[in-house]
Amino acid sequence: MLLLALDTATPAVTVALHDGHDVVASSSQVDARRHGELLLPAIDRVLVEAGLRLDAVTGIVVGVGPGPYTGLRVGLMTADAFGLALGVPVHGVCTLDGLARAADLEGPFVVATDARRKEVYWARYADSRTRLTEPAVDRPADIAGQVAGLPAVGAGALLYPDTFPKAHEPEHVSAAALARLAAERLAAGEELPAPRPLYLRRPDAQVPKNYKVVTPK
């Protein structure tokens, strides 16, 4: 097994290789505006670090969000393209699950990433491998009662200490954690879903009202 994992659902552009036993190379850069520019060089970098060729990859793992539309689709389209080119399966994993795996907490806790617009993408977890609720997007104040007293990880939790007073790192997802989680699930015989983006709201870019289509006569 050689899994190539990547995620662009948060400001982090993160890539890792997992050989079925552990992560053999990884790269993470935080830049919310350069996902498309940074992702392919990061993939090349981890392959060089591991001393492996792209055609050695047996599967792709990609974070499916939730996340902003533009950043998220960079990772998803890249994963699909690599899967088709290499003829290997592409597995989707919730980005929040990757953050939970990296947190490695034993008791109940919350993962929250920054959804902008003064909102967070979030979910509750029983432990680092078990999600209790479906991912959602809400204003922190509106979910205060549901997360009260729970530890929290992620950039969204760190941004709103009034709602998440027990927030701590990791701030962003790492592809290394995503790869470990996927490898564990595959080894246990689980069938990982095909990558389908978790878009929990419409994209920021909208067609202007009263837009007129101009066609030639």
TrEMBL record:
Keyword match Acyltransferase: yes
Domain Gcp-like positions: 32-145
Signal sequence range: none
Pfam families for the chain: TsaD (PF00814)
EC number: 2.3.1.234
MF annotations from Gene Ontology: tRNA N(6)-L-threonylcarbamoyladenine synthase activity
Protein keywords: Acyltransferase, Transferase
Superkingdom of origin organism: Bacteria
NCBIfam families: T6A_YeaZ (TIGR03725)
The name this protein goes by in its record: tRNA (Adenosine(37)-N6)-threonylcarbamoyltransferase complex dimerization subunit type 1 TsaB
Organism of origin: Streptomyces pimonensis
